[in-house]
Amino acid sequence: MFGQRIICEMKTKRFSGWAGLVRRVQATWRDSVLLLREFAAPLFLFGLAFFGGGLLYYGLARNTPSALDSPAEGVYHALGLTFLQPIVEFPEEPYLQAFFFLMPLIGFVLLAQGVADFGALFFNRRTRGKEWAMAVASMHNNHVILVGLGHLGFQAMLSLHSIGRSIVVVEEDPQADLLTQAQALDVPVIVDDATRETTLEAAGVRRARAILLCTQNDSLNLQIAVKARVMNPEIEVVVRIFDYDFAAAIEKQFGFTALSASAISAPSFAAAAAGMEITHPITIQGQPMNLARLEVNPNCVLDGLTFSEIETRFDVSVVLWQHGAQTDFHPPAAAMAATGGTIAVLGEMNNIAKLLEANHSRARATRRRRAAG
Known about the structure:
The chain is α/β, with parallel strands linked by helices. It folds into 3 domains: 40-123; 130-261, NAD(P)-binding Rossmann-like Domain (Rossmann fold); 274-372, Alpha-Beta Plaits (2-Layer Sandwich). It is built from 13 helices and 12 strands. A hairpin with a 2-residue loop joins strand 8 (282-284) and strand 9 (287-295). Helix 2 runs antiparallel to helix 4. The longest helix is centred in the first third of the chain and has 37 residues, at 2-38. The protein starts with a helix and ends with a helix. Mean pLDDT is 78; it is low at 1-16 and 363-370.
């Protein structure tokens, strides 16, 4: 089983690698097209130089011994002069001689400047950060847009990347170290204002499956969320909201998934202080549920109860029982909890809290009696 899982993971990584390579090749092609558009003006000037120069030479040399047979030959001659390869003899007329010297100079300056700029940008795409990120983002489909590359956004990006999700990040003012790490993972980061529709378009909002808003500004998150939903009515919206009541109101009003960072972290802090491990809540049919893990204390209420009794009394589901070297992910209802064993339960936070209290209450009473005796 373990070997099969390793092989499966290797195939998944290989597939992701090929998918990433194909995406980068497609992005390179699209970026090259965009780059050519940016150099439309230099290309136009270069074309104008040898087309116009060729027609000019044909007109000036028409009634001279250096006359050419057609305007097309004049254009060809101007192109040859640009590369210092004239197709006719050096003329006797001073104005045509000037043309022989000026045409190569004009053509060389325009061509060299354009080729140098285009080559530098083509082979060093990373220096064009935003344009390159937009080109890569345009190749993403069914991806997640992450707005805000702060510490929360960065951790969310790492989690999404670890499960193989395609991600496009939008951050107006990224921290240099976080930006570098994101680029090292081949995650495109569009450095722009996410409140602009053009920025969301560049991030592929109409093709995205979800948008995750992690900035520290509640109103900004909500503004971007509304724009994204208008642009793509099918997109899943997850919003970071600091105030728990405000988050609940947003979920009810807009149908977004609104998460309060403080509300999510509070149970974890409380559980850690109480000696219990607990996960962040997941929503099942609108009800937040937590997964908690605890070790059964000696002489507590739980010691000796069957798992069926624990589930009925505390309204939780026992999903794991571990005692010694044995681990059962589906413990029988008639099996009993015992001192030193570990149980994992799924349930609402208030019911888990009652379970935790039952795991400590009698143990504390026993210690008090022993201390008194």
